[in-house]
Amino acid sequence: MRVLFCVDGSDLALQAAVTAGRLLKPLRPEGTVLHVLPEVDQHLRHYERLHEEELQDIERQFGAQDPPSVAAVRGAQKALRQEGLKVGRKVRVGEPVEQIMQEAREGVYDLVVVGSRGRTGLGSLLLGSVSRGVVERSETPVLVVKARPA
């Protein structure tokens, strides 16, 4: 089973990914943590899509001062690996829903995991705009995980 864990750098998205990882662990999934940059970070403007090797390059260049996108995927990858899952990571640039859909198609994933709300979620909404867009447009099954605020 191939799983795409979508994170936006928020604690809620990280909690959602870890919760889904725990639920899926008996299935021994192979996963990818994906973060989509809605705008190109100046440090990353020469990359359209970042894969493991490029992310390691950036980490070597910045040391402890990871750009937020690298920190988001690194933190989620580390947390999922601590749960015993095998996960890689990617960063894409563009409109989040479109980039998640494109990655889901290109990566031939069996499941897409999103949090119910991320950075910009309003308390009164059931689903955030990204999670809602993914659910509405995805041809791949989507698991929406509601994380509890600290």
Q: From the alpha carbons, calculate the radius of gyration and give it in angstroms.
A: 14 Å
For this structure, what is the CATH homologous superfamily? HUPs
CATH architecture: 3-Layer(aba) Sandwich
Order of helices and strands: EHEEHHEHEHE
CATH topology: Rossmann fold
- Estimated share of beta-strand residues: 15-25%
Structural class: alpha/beta
Q: Let me know the number of strands.
A: 6
Distance between the termini: 31 Å
Q: Tell me, rounded to a whole number, the average pLDDT.
A: 83
Which spans of ≥5 residues are poorly predicted at pLDDT below 50? 120-126
How many structurally independent domains? 1
Question: What tags apply to this protein structure?
Answer:
150 residues; alpha/beta; Rossmann fold; 5 helices; globular
